[in-house]
Amino acid sequence: MVPPAVQQLRVMVQLLVVEALRALARNLARSALATLGIAVAVAIVITVVALGRASVEASEAELDKLGDNLVWVEAGSRNVAGARTGTHGMTTLTARDAEAIRLEIPLVKDVSENVDGGFLVIYEDHNWRTRWRGVAPVYRAIKRWELARGVFFDDDQTERADRVVVIGDTVRRELFGERDPIGEIVRVQQVGFEVIGVLAPKGPSATGQDQDDTVMMPWTTAMKRILGKDQTWLDDILCSASSPDVIAPAGAQIAELLRQRHHLAPGTDDDFNIRHPEELLQARIDTSNTLRLLLLLLASISLAIGGIGVMNVMLASVSQRITEIGLRSAIGARPSQIQLQFLGEAVMLSITGGAAGAVLGQVSGYVFQDKLGWTLAMSPAISAAAVVAAVAVGIASGLYPAVRASRVDPIIALRTE
Q1: Above pLDDT 70, what percent of the chain?
Q2: Dmax over Cα atoms in the chain, in whole Å?
Q3: Helix (H) or strand (E) holding 194
Q4: How confident is the model at residue 89 (pLDDT cuts 50, 70, 90)?
Q5: Three-state DSSP class for 82?
Q6: Which of 328, 350, 352, 330 is nearest to 338 (CA)?
Q7: What is the pLDDT of residue 22?
Q8: How far apart are the C-alpha atoms of 357 and 355, rounded to whole Å?
Q9: What is the overall mean pLDDT for the chain?
């Protein structure tokens, strides 16, 4: 004998799946339209969420490339629009300023002197015009830049102004191809430099500049070998604050210290400029998150519209099947079973539409990424969540028609033609 619990389970499966599919198959066109509405809504949700995630991930990647709580001190002042005001103060940022920041600003944990420019670097019969940068050994930690091979120059090499360089991946590829550059000698302005390291690829910056097209050397070497004895000033001082929360206070303390050192009278413009690129990128991430929520809200509206379509289909189905409902009630079907049957039809519409929408969302991701060049952060979790949301909408949309069907009076229903 079959246990009552098993019998009830069979009845539920019969009502939720078998009877629901039969009822939907009787009106294929109407069911297909409701399914299409859910499918399009689910695909929109998947695409919008993937676009939002991709935008945030791109901004976070740029933030990671930027540096470790970077506070960037530039030589020269800037106007309100952000452009340099000219050469005023351009030669007043010195190595002594960097040392003063290192010793007197407790909110700053690392400081690197910086000079830069462009030159032609030569190896055997290959040459490449690139950007060079003279920095301190701690620069690599400030910029969170890993090494692909070799080593970075140290404090002793910086103190001695050794002729050593660390090259970016683009320079390595252009000069050496697949050869190992470690230990090789490259020539710059008729001076030989030993390649001691290769930086790990970083890719383009937020402005599209190739960050790997670079050559780095001790800043003391750059001052003596590249710039010459006449230049004693720095282009920039790169600092790393002790934590993200103190980036702005550290910048304020640096500004106060430099104004004192440069003997700037109250009310006069700074002869330097302090930038907090991480704050700008964090603001962009916050904006991306806000935009993602807005897009998700709009996508949810489309899902709600799809749910309204399901409700309309189910209400029309209830109206057309009054006689069937009366017959089922007359032969002993309980209101809960009738309710479960119609609710099952709504759920099946939502599941079918959700599955189709998940496939459509993957196709849209391919179109955006392969055809339009947009990067989407697709994931199975997004698709699964969208399908679950579609089923929830289907249950909510089918509940009222199901309740309405279960409350139909069997006598009145049997009299209805």
Answers
A1: 75
A2: 107
A3: strand 191-199
A4: very low
A5: coil
A6: 328
A7: 66
A8: 5
A9: 80
